[in-house]
């Protein structure tokens, strides 16, 4: 049955329609927010996926270029692989939903959000996140929602919910916050050094709107929601788990208490083999073969329980650190001789090499998506090869995780970069993860800051990143232990990975992943306090002791730049017909040249002399010809009535035979020939812009 439900979000109408489209999906809604339309469909397999120990949730946010009236620019003229932006939105949709499915659920669940129409003042990402929650809530798929999400900005010091396109351009904050009626479930932010207290206030304001939308979806669910289907539980055998705890708990505690990750993994692996032998002897070979997956799950549960109990009850970490202690840190810069900037940042067994490259402004990345953003000048790429975790897997290109971590580091650093006017370069930083034991994204923020400084990029302030973790009481989220600088095991078995990048002045980026249903304001506030203290320590005691400020000069291998501004009407003169003029300058000098639409000219070269020569050639072309001006030109053509002289500035003038000499001459060829260099004076520019020249009474020619 077709139904439309309406409410208001940030002063604009939000409607959820269902029962008209995609009738074969388990749940389907069409979300209309202003003139933005997103259809969200959710489906689930009838049977569980065998042989896995996780919940197989897949989320796809599909950007359709017809939604903004564009035809794709690819050869096939159809949408290809998802853009980085769509992958980031898919991750943002996934994160608040995943913890709300049953822990023992193993059926495939697919969420597809398709953008049909975009009104730039009303975010399709927010519509998709709300739609995913609504579709799951009214479906027969087991789901503990609803959730909702909003964007939050800070415009002229004021917190704004779901800012319009105009407000976004002026906003100091780009925050997406999702949650349930009671708690915060996801935070993703890029900020212009926003203080902790203002960031917390923005999250709280966003949550006020989230609560209203959750109630709205709950009412829809109450009215038309389907009964949830029964599913096969993959809960671990309680008797088996009880046996493992009684017999091997102390052994497991000893196995995990190790600073070195490889040694710890080997300890757990050896103990796992011992457990499998014991279970086989106790229950028989047939049981062990038929329940291999369940035995593996039980060992995992035992390890998780031991690690969590040590942290929660004993306040003891597996590597012996205090709860607020950061792993050993080190960094160095200038490792690679030919690159423009490089740095190595090490935190415990996590190590990241970041490399900065400076290029022409025209080398900005072009974006072919549904946003108004068509290019970006700063690009941050994060690579996570298999050798970084000691595995032997071939590289298959960046996955969603790599794209997400790269985007987080990009957000963290873009706030401190100089403007294009101050530093007219395209900038790319690549972070290569060399060794991973947790918090690689935050190490890449630190390493990339150092690489930019090593490259001579005049950043406003250095940025550092750190993450905090959480182990909480399953029955009371406010009964918890918080950890500073979590390593891989603490992230894996913990309840939260709260990543914050920022300067001494404020926050520049946040990404929060959780495995529980949500976080309270108290937890968020403490996480901000801990990360601020930790990043200040990293900046003052580690990073700034290695390099105090950006280098005064860029690398000799980086292109040097000279800039000038010309009148827009002169751009065509510099470029010339079919690019003839500009290509001639490039050929003669070996430089690279960018010309912006506003007349800004950028000349790039590793040779200052050649760059200056190119600048002179451009200035010569655009120089204005004035009556009374004296110019040194070249004879280009001889006629019976005179000669044409190229006086620069893209102009030729007529030197009439009567104006060549004070004495009467019969033939122009008697005095001039093509290629001669002569000094001429402009005595007239007629109404049609024709330039008339004279050589009479000029001392330069008399001396010749």
Give the topology.
Blueprint: E1 3-9, E2 12-18, E3 27-33, E4 36-48, E5 57-63, H1 84-97, E6 107-117, H2 124-138, E7 148-155, E8 158-161, H3 165-170, E9 173-179, E10 184-194, H4 196-224, H5 238-256, H6 261-283, H7 285-290, H8 292-312, E11 329-333, E12 341-347, E13 350-359, E14 365-366, E15 375-376, E16 378-383, H9 400-414, E17 426-435, H10 440-454, E18 464-473, E19 476-484, H11 488-493, E20 496-502, E21 507-514, H12 521-546, E22 560-565, H13 571-575, H14 580-589, E23 592-595, E24 600-605, H15 608-622, E25 630-639, E26 642-648, E27 651-656, E28 677-685, E29 691-694, H16 699-703
Parallel strand pairs: 5-6, 16-17, 27-29
Antiparallel strand pairs: 1-2, 2-3, 3-4, 4-6, 7-8, 7-9, 9-10, 10-21, 11-12, 12-13, 13-17, 14-15, 18-19, 18-20, 20-21, 22-24, 23-24, 25-26, 25-28, 26-27, 28-29
Summarize the structure in words.
- The structure is a single chain.
- The protein has 16 helices and 29 strands.
- With 704 residues, it is an alpha+beta fold.
- The chain has an 8-stranded antiparallel β-sheet, with helices on both faces. A 6-stranded mixed β-sheet has the order 1-2-3-4-6-5. A 5-stranded mixed β-sheet has the order 11-12-13-17-16.
- Helix 5 (238-256) crosses helix 8 (292-312) and helix 14 (580-589) packs antiparallel against helix 15 (608-622).
- The longest helix has 29 residues, at 196-224.
- It starts with a strand and ends with a helix.
- The mean pLDDT is 93.
